[in-house]
Design goal:
The complex is a heterodimer of chains A (110) and B (515). Helices cover 47% and strands 7% of the residues of chain A. Chain A has 5 helices and 2 strands; from the N terminus they run ββααααα. In chain A, helix 2 crosses helix 3. Chain B has 2 domains: 144 residues, Fumarate Reductase Iron-sulfur Protein, Chain B, domain 2; 258 residues, no CATH class. In chain B, helix 3 crosses helix 9 and helix 18 packs parallel to helix 22. The relative contact order of chain B is 0.12. The chains are: A mainly alpha (110), B mainly alpha (515).
């Protein structure tokens, strides 16, 4: 599949993960989120931005514990748990949030 | 996700009315050239695919007497027909094990038996047409290789072996499955299924050490790449990444800590879950297993312990010596390899671990036997040890434990619905429907015994249930790791208790408790 934005085409795999992560932009993220029926709030952005920062350093999305801990630090203890993250990203913070953040899908027994 | 109806749970799993072709639309994403070629498979369907497929089929038959016996010996008795969870959940007759086998058997007869070569119409022999190949791709990816059918087959025909062979043949003509082959490629380049590089693993483990110290006041280590450690822990990479897996990993760490042994994880062999078994590739399975050997030698460990993972334990218990032995450099006084459940159970037997069982009193638990552990391995070196040891651990750390219906556990256990390389989002309908028999049995004990949580000792089972529980109206957190319960209940030396929690939380030094 592919995303169309401002007359430009962005190639993605069968599930909608963009193929060239350097093509990512906030606008494209909004478009992917729309496809996923997610309305991007500040909290969504907080998570997406953290994923991108972590990916830049480690070339992988953070483990769920790493993510909840980071969220706890920035958004407070009531939000620093996987339940809240699933409320933000119902199809899973790892997979759905990665898609919106333009990162490859984590694979394996997860 | 997708357009399908979640099955309604019933008191007993009933044999469904046949719905021909109900799942013929189900097939996983094809592997792209970049997933195929690094494994030595053609990037896409080759032009002469038919001849190459038959040639590969012949090679497999020459290598495996078992495969030939399984293809020759079915007598159509029907004992297997209602034993597959995918048949019970979908009603598609091609998900009856005998029908699945016949997809391969008819081609075998056509090309490899006298009668089939000359009188194909008389013996149900058929050519491998494009249509048959599509059926192979669809229905051999609707078998989780759980081997429940083979328990009930009077000849012991193992459908898993057939589905592995079929996937191997398809890989060799360029029709591989994306999920498995992409993952195997990541193990070769990065060391694990997730693609978790060493520095990320180190960061993750450090975080877990902090969490345990925050919670207990005790410095429990999760060492990485430590030369000279006694034990190498090989565990599925999901244990580093996902919930409830990671809670189990923290449990192993606490047990090692309390046992006073030195141990380490390896960033080079940071994966127990050998996906090459799912695609029936001996060569790939060996390459992955050899990473464990190299890590063990490089780190100079004396023992090998495997974490909670179903097919990892099958590969380890049944094949590790053939794949990557001899293990003569390890300490022969201990089982090679050893399961983390065996390790913990031994300590419990010796009275070396102290538990506060009430820590798990908010739950009533039952145990899901994982297919590969139940039907392809043992624990403790005794028949049935693989059933008894995990349950004994559960009973040692929990007050409330009940079993599900007898025909749904132990050697008759139902697959979670996501095993065998099918734990992928593109097969969600199959996974939800295939979970029905397990969900029926679980729902029974929820109703009658007030069960709140189900224990699993396999990374695939844990992820699969987290995903499908909500489809059946249960919380995703209702599946737990066995060592998560151990972690909740274990009392570490020097651990802060609830009473002195407040006064020591701020301080760095934990209080000593006297024996």
């Amino acid at each position: 599949m592919a995303y169309q934005l401002n007359g430009q085409t962005f190639e993605a795999d069968e599930e909608g993960y963009i193929k060239d992560i350097s093509q990512w932009s906030r606008e494209l993220a909004e478009l992917i989120a729309e496809d996923e029926n997610i309305d991007m709030t500040d909290d969504h952005w907080e998570v997406v931005n953290f994923l991108r920062e972590y990916y830049e350093e480690y070339q992988i999305a953070p483990a769920i514990r790493v993510l909840t801990k980071a969220v706890k630090k920035t958004m407070g203890p009531e939000k620093g748990n996987s339940k809240y993250l699933y409320e933000l990203f119902p199809y899973g913070p790892a997979k759905q949030a990665c898609k919106i953040a333009g990162l490859p899908k984590p694979t394996g027994c997860i | 996700m997708g357009d399908y109806k979640v099955p309604e749970l019933t008191e007993f799993t009933e044999i469904p009315a046949l719905q021909e072709g109900a799942m013929s639309h189900s097939h996983p994403y094809l592997a792209a050239p970049e997933h195929q070629e690094p494994l030595g498979f053609p990037g896409e369907l080759v032009e002469d695919w038919h001849d190459r497929a038959i040639a590969r089929f012949g090679e497999l038959l020459d290598k495996s007497r078992a495969l030939r016996v399984y293809l020759d010996s079915c007598v159509r008795c029907g004992a297997c027909t209602d034993k597959c969870h995918y048949f019970l959940g979908t009603g598609d007759p091609k998900n009856m094990p005998v029908a699945r086998q016949d997809l391969m058997r008819k081609v075998y007869r056509r090309h490899f038996t006298f009668a089939g070569k000359w009188l194909p119409w008389l013996v149900g022999a058929e050519d491998l047409t494009e249509e048959v190949l599509d059926d192979w791709y669809s229905y051999f990816h609707q078998c989780s290789q759980c081997r429940r059918c083979s328990v009930y087959c009077p000849y012991g025909i193992d459908t898993a072996e057939l589905s592995m062979a079929a996937r191997d043949i398809m890989d060799h003509i360029g029709k591989g499955q994306k999920y498995c082959n992409e993952i195997i490629g990541k193990v070769h380049t990065i060391g694990n299924n997730l693609g978790l590089p060493g520095p990320a693993l180190a960061d993750t483990l450090e975080g877990l050490e902090e969490d345990i110290e925050d919670e207990t006041g005790v410095k429990v280590r999760l060492p990485l790449d430590e030369k000279g450690a006694e034990i190498l822990l090989v565990t599925p990479s999901a244990d580093f990444f996902a919930e409830p897996h990671v809670d189990g990993l923290m449990g192993y760490a606490k047990v090692f800590h309390q046992a006073g042994v030195s141990w380490t994880i390896s960033s080079y062999a940071s994966e127990a879950a050998n996906f090459a078994m799912f695609i029936g590739s001996y060569e790939q399975m060996r390459e992955i297993a050899l990473r464990i050997r190299k890590a063990a030698l490089d780190l100079g460990v004396k023992r090998l312990v495997f974490g909670e993972c179903g097919h990892a334990w099958r590969v380890a218990y049944s094949f590790l010596n053939t794949l990557a032995g001899p293990w003569d450099f390890l300490d022969q006084k201990y089982p090679i390899p050893q399961h983390i459940c065996e390790f913990t159970y031994d300590l419990i037997q010796k009275g070396a671990l102290k538990f506060d069982k009430s820590a798990n009193d908010d739950m009533t638990l039952t145990f899901h036997d994982s297919c590969n552990v139940a039907r392809a391995t043992r624990m403790g070196g005794v028949p049935g040890g693989q059933f008894e040891i995990p349950r004994a651990i559960a009973r040692a750390v929990c007050n409330n434990f009940v079993d599900m219906a007898p025909d749904s556990i132990r050697e008759g256990t139902y697959c979670c619905g996501g095993g065998g390389g099918l734990l992928t989002d593109d097969l969600m309908e199959l996974r939800v429907k295939g979970a029905k028999p397990r969900m029926d049995a679980l729902n029974q004990v929820v109703q009658t015994d007030g069960v709140t949580h189900m224990i699993a000792i396999c990374a695939i089972c844990k992820s699969q249930f987290s995903k499908v529980f909500p489809e059946y109206g249960m919380g995703m957190d209702r599946v737990v790791s066995l060592h998560q319960l151990v972690s909740n209940a274990i009392i570490l030396d020097g651990q802060t208790t609830d009473e002195d929690d407040d006064e020591t939380k701020a301080g760095a030094a934990p209080t000593e408790t006297e024996e």
